[in-house]
Amino acid sequence: MTLELWLASPRGYCAGVERATQVVSLVLRRQHPVYVRKQIVHNRVVVARLAEQGAIFVDELADVPQGATVVFSAHGVSPAVREEAAARHLNVIDATCPLVTKVHREARRLTCPIVLIGHAGHEEVAGTMGQAPDRMHLVQTPDDIAALPLDPALPVAWLSQTTLSVDETRETVAALRARFPRLIDPPSDDICYATQNRQAAVSQLAARCQLVIVVGSENSSNSMRLVEVARAAGAATHRVDSADDLQEPWFDGVETVGITSGASVPDDLVRGVVAWLRERGWPEARELVVAKESLRFALPPSLRPLSSSDA
User: Which residues pair with 238 in a beta bridge?
Assistant: First the structure.
């Protein structure tokens, strides 16, 4: 039996996650304590590592002492959260992904009713809904569209969560357009470049591999979409947080394995999965390159001197 081990490329950290985690690390170098509202990114290991460095993760601003420093997560917040932070005289450092901020700007710019395609309860959705709460309606699947209390004869705009499945979003938009002929598209695609690239890569990976391992946490929307895309492409697929979650029976009778990771996963977790397989006789991993990524986002202005001091 000839074994093959493949790594999807791109995988792992996107520009928004890299920026957000760097923000917390830089602030922790300057002061303690530092509070972070919600998980800075949806990855259990990343959050645990930052907590070990001294970050204090809280669910709500009420848990942050008045006047303290708080970092907003990469998923963004609603205007109401910003107003609460100002009222409590908190020192806010905003790690919102710029691509999420773009969606927020689109929501505030629009004057017609807005349909947001996304997952109920997700922090990004809560922040986006808060940009235009009186005009925004959430749908999760095409089945939700019939219940929208909107006039089909009038203009309606749509926006989306940035970490959705590209194919499923396309289906939902088609269903929206069928009901609302005057549907207004966003000026540019809301699903982020990293989400699209990772889905394209895992789709090709799954087409050549019997088994795909997706490294990422269960509450990571983009990681769970990678699982769905890989399964839709025909590969048996398992999600793990790290190599500790791997199970040897998964690999019985398997000759080709592919590995990828969500946009909030540090690459050392992927290397851990590769090392686990290498110890069990799998060959050196080969890369399946689908796209090259070079995008970087600037840090908040107050943190740029700290970053440049590392150069």
Answer: 213
Task: Give the span between the Cα atoms of 272 and 220, in whole angstroms.
Answer: 19
Question: Residue for token digits 């009186």?
Answer: 134
pLDDT at position 227: 98
Mean pLDDT for back-to-back runs of 10 residues, the chain (311 residues): 95 97 96 96 97 97 97 98 98 97 97 98 97 98 97 98 94 98 94 95 98 98 97 97 98 98 98 98 98 94 71 44
Q: Which SS3 state, helix, strand or coil, does residue 254 take? A: coil
Beta bridge partners of 91: 69
For CA atoms 132, 76, 146, 191, give the dihedral sign: positive
Q: What is the 3-state secondary structure of 196-248?
A: HHHHHHHHHHHHHCCEEEEECCCCCHHHHHHHHHHHHCCCEEEEECCHHHCCH
124 in active site: yes
CB 21 within 8 A of CB 220: no
Catalytic residue among 124, 168, 248, 279: 124
Residue type, 27: V
Is 295 within 8 Å of 195 (Cβ atoms)? no
Calpha distance 161→294 (Å, rounded)? 22
Residue 70: strand, helix, or coil: strand
Q: How many helices (H) and strands (E) does the chain have?
A: 10, 13
H-type alpha helices, 44-156 = 44-53, 79-87, 98-109, 123-129
